[in-house]
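Hello again, I could really use a second opinion on something today. I've been staring at a protein lately and its backbone has me curious. Can you walk me through what the tokens say about the fold? Take your time with it, there's no hurry, and the full record follows here:
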Amino acid sequence: MGKASSKGMLVWLGLAFAILLADQFTKVLILGYYRPGEGTYVTSFFNIVRVHNTGAAFSFLANAGGWQRWFFTAVGLGAAAFILWMLRSHHGQKLFAFSLSCLLGGAVGNVVDRLLHGYVVDMLDFHWRFLSPLFPGGHFPAFNLADAAITAGAVGLILDEILRVRRAR
């Protein structure tokens, strides 16, 4: 990897690191000021809460007995390694690299939680009446900044692929 290549990749690693820092900072605040299950009303559709998720998205495997902590940690570390490899090769593709950086920062943020606490700290609670048929009380499962970054990264990858296919036509 040449000097120009290293510099280009540093921008994306910096973004991932900023996401990681913001995610961990918000989690430190939640852990310091809220007890598990406690929350604060913010708007008619949003609360700040403290939730511990031992599983993955939507609490998948949350009650699996503990092995899932190490499984999801390994998946997160494997994803981070793959993303770093992809960033090294594609750091010049802005949307693609931005998306990978979001995924990297989010994945590492949740891995840090699993290693430090044994669970992921979630705090963003959105709720709307129209979600009631899908989620109890219309509350979308609580999530954190790492999850939001992962979602943004996934959306970015989809958009990047759509644009790539359109350019190829």
